Amino acid sequence: MLALIPNCECCDKDLPADSLEAMICTFECTFCSTCASGVFNHVCPNCSGNFTQRPIRPAAALINNPASTKRVLKKHI
Questions:
Q1: How many degrees, rounded to 5, is the angle at CA 13 between CA 8 and CA 6?
Q2: Do residues 73 and 12 touch, judged by C-beta distance below 8 A?
Q3: Angle CA 76–24–41, to nearest 5
Q4: What is the rounded average pLDDT of the residues 48-55?
Q5: Strand partners, 10
Q6: Strand-by-strand arrangement of the 22-24 sheet
Q7: I need a surface site. Which of 19, 24, 37, 75 has the fewest CB within 10 A?
């Protein structure tokens, strides 16, 4: 199950579980759409994979399967 990391690993922008701006790679590295496209040119700096829009977990499913509260921030640039 996806962890739904709550922030961009690059700029620390909040990315709540229902965010349309959240982008992930195959290893679930999480970035905002601005960093994924503008900073990393659609290539994950951690694994070199491509990005896709993170799926939105329905609110009812979040009750028993909440999004992660652990923020991830890495120095990429």
A1: 60
A2: yes
A3: 55
A4: 97
A5: none
A6: 30-32, 22-24, 52-53
A7: 75
